[in-house]
Amino acid sequence: MGNINPFVIFMASIFTNNMILANFLGMCSFIAVSREIKTAWGLGQAVTFVLTGTSIINYLIYHYILVPFGLEYLRFIVFIILIAAFVQLVEMIVERYVPTLYYSLGIFLPLITVNCAILGVSLFMIIREYTLIQSAAFGIGSGLGWTLAIVALAGIRQKIKNAPIPKGLEGAGITLIITGLMALAFIGFSGIVNVQ
Predict the structure, then answer these.
(1) In the chain, which residue ranges form alpha helices assigned H by DSSP?
(2) Which of 75, 112, 138, 163 shows its CA 20 to 30 Å from the CA of 60?
């Protein structure tokens, strides 16, 4: 896949191969933190930062340490340890400089560590054999796509907060329906760019 333009990968990871709406990775925090736009935006920025940093660092570790020493089978463990360390760094920075966001995100900030979208990006870039620039574009685009999806869902959820929704669909039910409709809407972008 070395011949694919990084900009195409970047755009595809936002729209046509969105981690949430195409791959359904990272759903737990996506549903739980999408009640308010401000909180969703903050978590989206944190996820984007983590995705960007970990995709680049995991690429370098995989290709320059694991592959030369024949340790590719350790990639899951190494990727998870690096993601956990990176998220811990982000958590300390957010707690220090943006305490209101830190307390509004609560447990979901450290849960970025187990957000499967983060590990998914690192694994997809290895499986798809991206270069370093392509991996960086994929990481940034995936983060921005995740942010776009969670902020859009938060906006919709705020709009329908006072709407007459049947009792059985309140909460997670209507949220999953909205997510499904958003995924269908994003399928409309599939003719523009598609990178598998």
Answers:
(1) 6-14, 27-32, 37-61, 75-97, 99-105, 116-127, 132-159, 172-187
(2) 112
- At 146, the pLDDT band (50, 70, 90 cuts) reads very high
Domain that holds residue 181: 6-191
**Which amino acid makes up residue 60?**
L
Nearest by Cα to 56 from 29, 83, 77: 83
51-64 pLDDT per residue, tens? 999 999 999 999 99
- Rg of the chain in Å (alpha carbons): 17
Amino acid occupying residue 166: P
Q: How many structural domains are present in the chain?
A: 1
Q: How far is CA 10 from CA 86, 130, 143, 178, 193, in A?
A: 22, 12, 10, 25, 10
**Are 27 and 153 within 8 A, CB to CB?**
no
CA distances from 46 to 18, 77, 112 (A): 17, 22, 8
Report whether pLDDT(196) > 60: no
Decide if 196 is inside a domain: no
